[in-house]
Amino acid sequence: DTAVSQTPKYLVTQMGNDKSIKCEQNLGHDTMYWYKQDSKKFLKIMFSYNNKELIINETVPNRFSPKSPDKAHLNLHINSLELGDSAVYFCASSQDGQGARRNTIYFGEGSWLTVV
Amino acid sequence: GQSLEQPSEVTAVEGAIVQINCTYQTSGFYGLSWYQQHDGGAPTFLSYNALDGLEETGRFSSFLSRSDSYGYLLLQELQMKDSASYFCAVRDRSSASKIIFGSGTRLSIRP
Question: For the segment A26-36, what is each residue's pLDDT rounded down to a tens digit?
Answer without folding.
Answer: 999 999 999 99
